[in-house]
């Protein structure tokens, strides 16, 4: 039986390895990025994220919230 996780709990290094299937930090980051899961890259190059971000990836939030993905303003043009 799997242990229930607090949504704000940071995912352990062992769980990140198990989830991504990679031991190498850069590959873990690549796998999380490809899956649309928000993470930060720590000073040691390893990814860090919470169970909330894993269970509700950014790539699914626009779909679930029915956000218009049509043309968006280019705020960079204001410089």
Features:
single chain; 2 strands; mainly alpha; two-stranded antiparallel ribbon; about 80 residues; globular
Structural write-up:
The protein has 79 residues and is mainly α. The chain has 4 helices and 2 strands. It has helices spanning 13-20, 25-34, 51-55, 58-64; strands at residues 40-41, 47-48. A two-stranded antiparallel ribbon has the order 1-2. Strand 1 (40-41) and strand 2 (47-48) form a beta hairpin. The N and C termini lie far apart (54 Å).
N-to-C terminal Cα separation, in Å?
54 Å
CA gyration radius, whole angstroms: 15 Å
Q: How would you sum up the major sheet?
A: 2 strands, antiparallel
Given as residue ranges, the uncertain stretches (5+ residues, pLDDT < 50) are none
Helix content, binned percent: 25-40%
Q: How does the helix and strand content classify structurally?
A: mainly alpha
Please write the string of helix (H) and strand (E) elements: HHEEHH
Shape: globular
Q: What's the number of helices?
A: 4
**Adjacency order of strands in the biggest sheet:** 1-2
Mean pLDDT: 84
Strand content: 5-15%
Number of strands: 2
């Amino acid at each position: 039986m799997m242990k229930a996780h607090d949504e704000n709990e940071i995912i352990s290094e062992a769980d990140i390895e198990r989830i991504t299937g990679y031991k190498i930090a850069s590959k873990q980051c690549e796998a999380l990025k490809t899956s649309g899961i928000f993470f930060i890259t720590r000073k040691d190059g390893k990814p860090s994220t919470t169970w909330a971000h894993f269970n509700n990836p950014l790539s699914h939030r626009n779909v679930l919230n029915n956000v218009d993905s049509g043309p968006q303003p280019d705020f960079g043009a204001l410089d």
